[in-house]
Automatic annotation (TrEMBL):
Organism expressing this protein natively: Vreelandella lutescens
Start and end residues of each Sigma-54 factor interaction domain: 337-568
Record bears the keyword Metal-binding: no
Listed name of the protein: Sigma-54-dependent Fis family transcriptional regulator
InterPro entries in UniProt: AAA+_ATPase, AAA_lid_NorR, GAF-like_dom_sf, Homeodomain-like_sf, HTH_Fis, P-loop_NTPase, Sigma_54_int, Sigma_54_int_dom_ATP-bd_1
Origin superkingdom: Bacteria
Amino acid sequence: MASVQRQHIEHIFQLGEGLDAPQLPAQATIRRSWLRCLNEYQLDPTQPRPARVVPQQTLIEHRESVDELLHVARAGVDQLYGQIAQLGYVLLLTDHRGITVEFRGNPNQDQQLRKAGLYLGADWDERFAGTCAVGTCLHDRQAIICHRQEHFDATHISLTCTAAPIADPQGNVMAVLDISALQSPTQHESQNFSLSLVTLYARMIEDAYFLQRYRDCLMVRLDTSREFVHVNGRGLIAIEENGQVIAANAVGRELISAHQQRWPPWSAHHAPMLSELFECEIADVLSINSATNDQLRAFRARASNAIYFISLLEPRRPRIAPLGKPASSLPTALERLGADDPAIRKVQKLAERLCNEASVNVLISGETGTGKEVVARALHDSGNRAKGPFIAVNCAAIPEALIESELFGYEPGAFTGGRAKGMRGLIPQAHGGTLFLDEIGDMPLALQTRLLRVLAEREVMPLGANKPEKVDIRVITATHRHIDTMIAQGEFREDLYYRLNGAQLRLPPLRERADKLYVIRQVFSDVVSERGASSAPRLRADAISALLAYAWPGNIRQLKNALAFALATAESDEITVYDLPEQCLSQRITRTPAITATESEAADSHLVTRLQQHHWNISAVARELGVSRPTVYRQMQRQGIVPPNKA
């Protein structure tokens, strides 16, 4: 090993032993990363790791997961690389797991770049690669230079790398933009301009993604300089028509944060109104384009008293489809599965190709409650079997002793306790249509063998029968379990798995979907329809904000239950944040001490007096106390308070 590498390894051990020396990195972020590599990740600096490049199929999956971002980012990537290529730099764009999903480099250096890990598909996660610009940027969520000997791995000490995070509209890091070079000057200061350049382009890509993501919403663009608002306004805030904030870019989030730090008791538990951030009325903002010459207005920020110049970006007009063609080529049932979410879009496109391919069995995977049966029904309704039956079977809900007879049916007298006339099984009932087997991972092994025979021979033998019955079925299955693990443990037949998994549709959890607002409104509409109400309360913006902020461990099923609860208990013509179930507010409430203490405070307050003042309007009392309606109901129950109309 070269002497410079040995010295580098000695410096790492010196830091690990608590020693200090002039040769150690000056940056505190680099020192902390070295210690993480030693103590948390247990990386051995004496055992340099070769660059890891993921297989092609894995790379495809990583690229597909950030497909929307890649579409937006490519122009910025090409533009930045055009500025740095002549200086010997390469460009990497990684996803939030450190996998390089976009790359620009000199083809003449292909072999050297691949060996160094500066290549498409390279893994720069700090847990594997050690201290590096991408991995440490992901960990610390901030732009960073990792120059030569600041790298942890001794094989990387000739590299210089500079990276900046790219955040989604909620402030979560979704990608990292990095420029690197195989060789560079020894001085750390030589990379300062690289840091400014990468940070600038990361923000440009971030804002372009924001504009794409909220292109159908009202937006305001703002800056402290009137001259730059239209061409390069730094702040972006998406709003409802009433002025409620939906989302904001980095500058907008800083403005909101400053507002909430100044007035935490009443603003931290709901998305603010634009009129709370600025000294303005929403009508002043909505009239900017029609009432001003330069389509700008100046407003004062309440938190800082700074003057901001604001322009209004109105939603794009829907594109008029050519005569005779629908606006969307997707069948209606598939189109309703989602809106602008990359993972759902992939499901829709693949499902469209599969809906008429009855010979291809489909396996739908995803967490519990993500809507697997809804997708199965959409596949059925969109294909040439739509007029046939759709038979859904939950393998986890039928007792193991009955599942065989339920699926295959039985002849009269086949067993004690059966129906006198026998029973036609669910599989024969699906003849000419679709059989949907939900939670296929819970099917007993013995029954898996019989199902495999049905799929292979396309016939069913009911219990007690002398001859089989021919069936023409399309089979769709679903599971939330890891079938690969079950196969390895002998709990699921491998041959059956391959027979069922002709094509796989993976549903994302609700918390990861980019079209959560669409899902909320769609589910709310469905719940209203199921209740058969001629009119329904309106979902107010604060309720929508709370629903968007919640993690939804139970996914769409839990969302549906929450909206059904709100509809059943709402006392006015609009559903507010206080009408939602308590668990939907927990993640927001715990951030503000004034809110977490209110439940106990409500018990000590003159609750009866407040109820009487508000004419026993529970929602009004909840708003005054700053708690949810269920909290007020609990306090009434504990204190034995009964409304006059129920006494």
